[in-house]
Amino acid sequence: MSAHAIAPFDSVERQHDAARLGMWVFLGTEILFFGPLFMGYIYGRFHFPEAFAAASRHTDVLLGTINTAVLLTSSFTMAVAVESRREGDVRLARAMLVVTAALGSFFLVIKGVEYAKDWHEHLVPGIRFSFDAQYAAGAELLFYLYFVMTGLHAVHLTIGIG
């Protein structure tokens, strides 16, 4: 067993191969999990174009833009943390993980504000959902997909922050 390999691996190369395979399996499961949701969005966008357009006007562009910037920045700080750890700079890696967790928390706060706004406007799918009858079915589909996808992302972030 090499000096740097961790049990049960007999070499660092095998350990790296296992990590690489694990990442590909993870990415494959993400595609299987989120793929149908994106396909549902594509289906809805083509079958209910007016309803999706009307419903999307109820989203907050400013908060969405801020959250997109927060997500891109947190992805960058996470990448810096991983690379810093790989290079042996534990202090920088730790600092970047703290920044990433703080950005993730900020994202969740903004998402909570958006969710509260949507709740008060009766845009959460279910028995309280209220939208122009002409577009209700398509709009409810859009908001269903929105809440499922962003909700799953919020769960992912919460686990990552923890």
Distance between the termini: 34 Å
The overall average pLDDT, rounded, is 93
In terms of DSSP E residues, the strand content is under 5%
Give the number of DSSP strands. 0
Q: Note the main sheet.
A: none
Percentage of residues in helical conformation: over 70%
In quaternary terms, these chains amount to single chain
Radius of gyration: 21 Å
In DSSP terms (H or I, runs of 4 or more residues), the helix count works out at 5
One letter per element, helices H and strands E, the order comes to: HHHHH
Q: List unreliable stretches of 5+ residues.
A: none
Describe this structure in words.
With 162 residues, this protein is mainly alpha-helical. It has 5 helices and no strands. It has helices at residues 12-47, 49-56, 61-86, 90-120, 136-161. Helix 2 packs across helix 5 (136-161), helix 3 runs antiparallel to helix 4 and helix 4 (90-120) runs antiparallel to helix 5. The protein starts with 11 loop residues before the first helix and ends with a helix.
